[in-house]
Amino acid sequence: MDRRVLIGGGIALALLLAAGITVAVFAFSRKGDDPGISREADPSRENTLTLARDYIAQGVYQRALDHLDRLLIADASDEEARTLRDEALAALRTQTDTPAAPRPSVEEIVALGRLEAERARRAEEERASREAEEAEQRAHAEAEAVRLKAQEEELARQSQEMQRRMRLVNDYVAQGKASLSAGDSKAATEAFDNALRQLPPGENRFEGQKRAEIADSYYERYARDRNSPEGQEALKAAQAFAREAAAKDPTGTLPHSTLGKIYRDLSQWDNAAEEFREAVRLEPNNYVHSYELGRVYFSSRKLAEARQTFETATRLNPQFESAWYNLGGALSALRQRDEALAAFRRAVEIRPDYAPAHREIGRILSAKGDRRGAIEAFSAALRTDPQDLASLRELGVAQSAAGDYAAAEASFAKALQGAPGDERTTYNMAVVKIALKKSAEGVEFAQEAVAAAPNNKEYNYTLGLACEGALKFDEAVAAYTRAAVLDSRYVSPRINLGRLYADRGFPDQALEVLTEAYRVEPNNFEVNNNLGQAYAKQNRWKESVEHYERAVSVQPNNAAVRENLASAYVGAGDIAKARDTYREVVRIAPNNWDAFLALGNTYVSLGDADSAKRYIRDLITRNPDYPRRAEAERILSEL
Fold it and tell me: Which of 466, 461, 547 is nearest to 502 (CA)?
């Protein structure tokens, strides 16, 4: 059985007959059997009885009853089928008499999952936005301190009357800012108007600075409530004052920074970049301007420019963790993983509780195949932020990739508690349940994933794997078929369909789907190995040999497929090639005792008694407890 690969990713049912597959609702019962065959010798009846017994043993009583009803419809005097039916009915009554805790339907789970997944996505976006806003606020506070110091120095150079008027203007501006922060737009407007009336004539630089501060205050009001009418009015005021400020004082950087943020918020990337570039030109040593310009470049997918400006920001302020984090993001987008990893690690050196940076480190290490490092990084993110569902999901993926399925199961369970029904996590849980041999539980999770995304081929294929593991063969056939129909070049479900049909006595159907797979991938090992088996069951030895040879060419050191090839050579009557192939088998797998016995038999068929004795005696000496020892000794006695 193929093992599924987990995704994070997403990671869109077509008509079931679109790919020419005629097995959408195949129930493993043959039609048109020869009426001359007795009931005891009827392989269809025996297969159905065996299948019904399997279902009863697994507690799937209704499926058993469905199959037994078909037998009784065909022959109401079939006592064996009637006895099994009565057994299944009694067990079903016992099962249904036991009250079960109510469980939501798949549809309810999926609906809830979509709602919770949307909530989780919004929470993730809000958390990322808060991170950026906090970094911006810290940088803004530092820039504000620099501006205030410059103001005080400017004031000290003025005459006493000029100082009085400037301080009065500063007071009115401060009063307007406080009113805006308190939500009193009317009082703020009044205070700002008073400030503008008191502006000393001829002091264009001072006036530009004050208008820039007013613009920045209005922008902060807008940023707190972007969608309200008041917030939109504040945005208009911020734009107007910033433009006036830039006109009054061409040397000031604040109005360009404010306009840059406004255009950024409006996704007007070219305008935003132009304003931040001007701020950088006017104040090249201010790391905040480079940081903001880098964010705009990154948002507009100008990744090379983003990298350069974030590098400038980290050079100007090596302790600015957000610049290192964003530099890592730009480098990751440029697929420069090692450099990105170094940038993210620098961010967590500066701020050890930087959960998003730890998560990005985990993602890069996962991509590089460092499972242990990835697990540690995701765990570090969760130690800082236990509600980080993204890190929790990816921790589960990393644990699964490392083969620790029990730990992955626990991680996905926690993630599903936070966002029930999230389709990717539900799919990944189904994969883990299959790996843990909990196929019945895997069926439930895979069904939920398919219900959420019915046109996802991987989800349908995994549902087939889970159903097969839970011995729900009809359901497995249906799921594999849907997966194959969804993608005409998807060979994995066709391989499993072929194997299922062959194992359960339907070689024609097996050959049909395996031939479809072979047309897509003629050098696929599993396709050729399964075709070799299917042709062998029909005694079509030439075709069997052809496909086993192809399989061996793909995996030359696979002893099992070489053994199959040797058996096909025997069937085809080419004993010499069978001998040579069995010799290769015992060379690759020196403890394959059945191959030793088969090799001895080929030597017998070729008339080489001495070689036959040598290999069979070697087998008995090396493995005196060989279950087929009596057969080996009989061959020796006849030589």
Answer: 547
